[in-house]
Amino acid sequence: MPRNDAGASVSIAAGNIADGRRLPPAAALAVAAALLLAPVISSASAQSEQPNIIVILADDLGYSDLGSYGGEIDTPNLDYLARSGTRFTQFYVTPRCSPTRAALLTGRYPHEVGLGYLNRDWRRPGYRGELSADAVTVAEVLRSAGYRTYMSGKWHLARNPRPDGSQPDEEQRRAWPRARGFDRFFGTIRGSGSYYRPASLVRDDHFIEPGEGFYYTDAISAEAAGFLEEHFAEDQESPFFLYLAYTAPHWPMHAPPETVEKYAGRYDAGWDALRVERRRRTVQLGLARAQWALPPRDPKAAAWEEEPLKEWQARRMQVYAAMVERMDAGIGRVLSTLRSAGALDNTLLLFLSDNGGCREVLSGPYRLGAYLLQPLDIKWRRFGDQPKRMPGSVRTFQTYGAGWSNVSNAPFRSHKRATHEGGIATPLIVHWPAGLDVEQGSLIRQPGHVVDLMPTLLEAAGAVDSPPDGSTPNLRGESLMPLLQGDSRSRGPMFWEHEGNRAVREGKWKLVSDWPGEWELYDLEADRTEIHDLAAREPERVAAMRAMYDRFAAQTGVESWPWVARPFRRLVWGSAVMLLVVAVVLVARRRRARRAAAS
Question: What's residue 39's pLDDT?
């Protein structure tokens, strides 16, 4: 595997934050090229030594959902990769989808590249809702290193397309995958939607319509395998980079009935029993320590024995499990394509989730917002969490709720959107027979952050170790390659912020706060389930770590919550009130008309 002379990582010191100057797209591509032109080996024989690279990203998958991380869901292909590769026990992402995707593809904290929240423009530098022009992506860099670049799945790094059905113009496509380094793209620009009729489905640069029998997870897998088959048929010399970004198992709970029925009865014992069982297995697998107590059940979930809707609740988790299994089967299809081409051994493959399991429910204003983003022919269906109709079919649009999200994130506390461990801890499986120098099936216990992935991929591809000039945006991450080669590394502090929820981890210590609460301090070696708050005992440590966080926030564009969101919130609530008034007026008119007709 090519490395630079010093054998060092690609990481650039995180102590000096870039000034955030924007580069035009052409300049950004030039920067990307400059990162790699020096060390790239030009001969075909040398180039063939570069590994193929696949990054697989699940959506809202919890820490213990996979079999290899303690779950009861059938995931044989991912479990195979874990057995023959390595697993991280302490890998972190951000608490939400768009920020994690931005950090993964740029090696920078999401606020620095315009994605401090989601793909909504709040007209603040860190919250523009699309990938900024001066953010060089890993696809741009690898393409300039001789890689062919492909993406299949969810993008969610550009503002939502116009809902009028027109094809996008160049201005709208400026933050789409083809403009940010990918040769081919199939997937959705928006963040979520029906698996049978997804909104904003795109091939390359044009909107397309799903055909009969369409199921989005299967389509993502099939298109990815098709890209690889095409690659092996047309280009035997160039390595490839595939970004395989599933929407599964993000709501709505949609899955083919034959897969759902496989899980009949599996969740009848309920979330309390399943949480205890998963904790036991994570300890047995060496992923957690027996001394870490299981946090209390989420207060939004009833005790299972008191749950009045057991059949509906069990069905929600059945569908969720089926969605995960269907994703795993699609990954198996990609692996089969690699094996057929003899390319599996020299493919660096990473699998992770974008955040923890999700306790969001489709009710109230949140239900309205999700509803408004769907295509017109979805809206008349039974939208939202309605227990009278079992989830899974095209005529439903439901979530799986706090009780099951608690299970997904076991043994940790909290959920997606929070910076406690349940919101940011993710599985990370790494498989690379030709490049790993660790025992098969081993565990890597040192912590890592999603910003570490881009430096890791560049080092594996043979990238240069220093920035070309002062205008280059700094990479924030620190390469994982020493860990993948059996060495150790000393990771610097890691930071998080989302919706005012914030955290900093340094060594074994983590300072964390749920907005608008106070700071809490935890010793993660003794208490990674974050039960025993030590802030009152360690005021000096709290002050020092809080100062670190404040410097990070000032340097990366983090703004106070909820002030940054006030214009958007006023718009949402104003629209909701207006719609309510319109609905009341229409109902009143209809009643008057009925009374008039009756008289």
Answer: 35
